[in-house]
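=== RUN LOG ===
request id: a7f3
mode: sequence -> structure
chains: 1
length: 157
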Amino acid sequence: MRSATTTGIETSGGRSEVRELRREEFPAANEVWRDYRNTIGEPDRDRVFAVFLAGEIVSLARCRRHPDGLEVDGVFTPEQYRGRGYARMVMEALVVACHNDDLYMYAVEDLSRFYAEFRFISIPERDLPPSVRERYTWAAGNVEGANVRPMYRRAGL
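=== RESULT ===
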């Protein structure tokens, strides 16, 4: 069974809650993600973490299980909530909950320093698990042109 760790944090916008979503909460996350490339969570293969403010989701991050590795993606904060540290809070929750697994991602180039704060390091694209790499086949090996950077976080850090 998954842990649904809850952390309450006082922010300038009020009291926030950071935790892993329950299966029945995935539709609410999907509504928030609608503005982010139509990302959706799949309860049978995803762990989704959220920051709630007054019961409303203000930031999300997803850890998706592939046959050969875990991919972090779907890190998204709606525009009206940006600049308040919510993405940092949700990434911290994800990294703590998933720290026993190697984590992979394609980070947007401008955010690679942000992910480095969580001990993600840049790696060659060929070092990503094939099923994670497959999601970016449209880039045809030109991740620089796609403005993304393959990154990895070793288990146990």
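=== NOTES ===
Residues 86-97 form the longest helix (12 residues).
The chain has one domain: 6-153.
=== END ===
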